Structures are given as structure tokens and as C-alpha cells.
């Protein structure tokens, strides 16, 4: 049986300290539980934010997406919403350790805290749980399960994002490609100018992840972009990752991952 959902913070012995963006950021993460990989980095790289704009990260976890975005675009006003108090506390600690201003609100997006209901943001981003637990097995660790296993529907996530984004502002999600029909159906009810960027692991392979962006009040037609290639070569042939030069620039040098490609 998995552990209970912890509310206390992580102590130093439970954490690793991992470099992101080529060492521009050092992020504390639990050794056991939800650990961020490249997904929130790619999400952050795709956001069309400018200095002085307000950004909300729904389900911010340890703060990786927001902090990566801030490393690329200084001067943002960053807010994160996180339902798990221990991870919210970790996001605050990570922001302080990296000298980045990030307000983290503890709460559930299905019952948005008053502090957020009164605000509008230029951009809302999210890396929601990937797995529909009607068709998959729950993780043993409760913190990881809350981050990876769907509790609220993707429709709930999109609806919450659309309520908080300002008119003409952007909403950007990263999600598994197999969930794209659900994501598109929800987004079409609340947003316009929808765009999808498939993230292709290797040439000739099917996309495993997608980035979806919409704008509140947008009127442009739907756009399916050419896929973004993550790795060189047709297969993994050596230890370590072999990213394309463009992807390497995103992951190690805080470059933007633009729409359109």
C-alpha cells in the first residue's frame, strides 16, 4: 500500500539537489516521490511571456516550470498553486535558493483560494497529471500519485486556467499525446486560437507528449504545428541523452521553444 499524503515538509536527508538549465538553477527534489524531468522545462520554454507580465503555474510542484521560465525571462510576476503542502513548501525553498521571486499558494484548483480568485494573469501554465487511473495503476508513493494520477479531469484543469487568464492571455499545457482528444475537447469550450506542438522522441517515432496553447478570446483557426524533434538518431545507442542541438539549447541554455516551429 502506498504512503499517506504527507503535509509536513521534506527534510534534508530526503532531498537531492539537481541542476537544471545547465546549472543556472539547482532544484531540491524528493529522492522518493514526484521528481521533475524535462517536461516542465519544455513547458516553461514554450511560454510567450515578457518581463513585467503575470504568470500562474497550476499544480506547480517543486516549482521547476516557473523557475525555469523566470531564468529565461527575468522580471516576471510568478505565482504557483500547489495542493500538496510539502511540495508547495519545497517550491518556496527552491525559489529562495535560486534568488527568484515566486509566490506559492497552497490550495486545490477545484476550490480556488480567494487570493487567486481575485487575480487575472497574462499566462497560465500547467503540467497536469498524465494518467487516467481508470486505465492505469496508481503509484505507491502518495505524493507521486497525486502529481501523476488524474484526480480532477483535464476539463477541470482547463476550466480553472481559463478563469484565471486575462482576455487575450495564453494558456499552455504539456500532456501525453494519448490524452490530446480530452485536452482539445476541454480547451475548445473555453479558449480560442488553439495550437498543438507534438514533441517527437526520435525521427520516425510517434509523439509521446504534446504542448497545447490557447488564448482567451482568441479567434484564429486551429493550428497543428510540425513536430519538435527531441533526440538525434533513430535509436538510443550510448549512455546519456543525445538531444538535438535545438533541444539542447532549450534544456541547457534556457532558449525558447517557439510556436510556431
The first-level CATH class name? Alpha Beta
The beta-strand count equals 11
What is the fold named in CATH at topology level?
Answer: Rossmann fold
What is the CATH superfamily label? Vaccinia Virus protein VP39
Number of domains: 1
Secondary-structure element sequence?
Answer: EEHEHEHEHEHHEHEEEEH
Uncertain runs are: 133-150
What radius of gyration results from the CA coordinates?
Answer: 17 Å
Query: What is the second-level CATH architecture?
Result: 3-Layer(aba) Sandwich
Strand content: 25-35%
What structural class results from the helix and strand content? alpha/beta
Q: Taking all residues together, what is the mean pLDDT? A: 89
Distance between the termini: 44 Å
Form type: globular
* Residue share in helix: 25-40%
The main β sheet shows up as:
9 strands, mixed
Which helices and strands, and how do they pair?
Layout: E1 15-20, E2 25-30, H1 39-45, E3 54-58, H2 64-72, E4 77-82, H3 85-97, E5 102-106, H4 114-117, E6 121-126, H5 142-148, H6 154-164, E7 165-176, H7 180-190, E8 192-200, E9 209-215, E10 223-224, E11 228-229, H8 245-253
Helix pairs in contact: 1-2, 6-7
Amino acid at each position: 500500500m502506498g504512503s499517506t499524503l504527507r503535509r509536513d515538509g521534506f527534510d534534508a536527508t530526503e532531498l537531492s539537489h539537481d541542476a537544471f538549465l545547465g546549472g543556472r538553477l539547482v532544484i531540491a527534489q524528493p529522492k522518493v516521490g514526484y521528481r521533475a524531468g524535462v517536461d516542465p522545462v519544455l513547458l516553461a520554454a514554450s511560454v510567450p511571456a515578457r518581463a513585467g507580465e503575470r504568470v500562474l503555474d497550476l499544480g506547480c510542484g517543486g516549482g521547476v516550470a516557473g523557475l525555469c521560465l523566470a531564468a529565461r525571462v527575468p522580471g516576471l510576476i510568478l505565482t504557483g498553486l500547489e495542493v500538496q503542502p510539502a511540495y508547495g513548501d519545497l517550491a518556496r525553498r527552491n525559489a529562495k535558493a535560486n534568488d527568484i521571486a515566486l509566490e506559492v499558494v497552497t490550495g486545490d484548483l477545484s476550490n480556488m483560494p480567494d487570493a487567486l480568485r481575485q487575480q487575472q494573469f497574462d499566462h497560465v501554465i500547467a503540467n497536469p497529471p498524465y494518467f487516467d487511473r481508470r486505465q492505469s495503476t496508481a503509484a505507491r508513493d502518495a505524493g507521486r500519485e497525486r502529481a501523476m494520477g488524474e484526480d480532477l479531469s483535464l476539463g477541470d484543469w482547463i476550466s480553472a486556467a481559463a478563469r484565471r487568464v486575462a482576455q487575450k492571455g495564453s494558456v499552455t499545457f504539456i500532456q501525453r499525446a494519448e490524452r490530446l482528444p480530452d485536452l482539445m475537447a476541454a480547451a475548445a469550450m473555453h479558449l480560442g486560437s488553439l495550437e498543438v506542438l507534438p514533441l517527437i522522441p526520435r525521427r520516425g517515432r510517434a509523439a509521446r507528449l504534446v504542448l497545447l496553447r490557447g488564448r482567451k478570446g482568441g479567434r484564429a483557426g486551429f493550428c497543428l504545428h510540425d513536430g519538435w524533434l527531441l533526440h538525434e538518431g533513430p535509436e538510443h545507442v550510448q549512455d546519456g541523452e543525445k538531444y538535438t542541438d535545438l533541444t539542447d539549447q532549450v534544456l541547457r541554455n534556457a532558449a525558447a521553444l517557439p510556436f510556431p516551429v
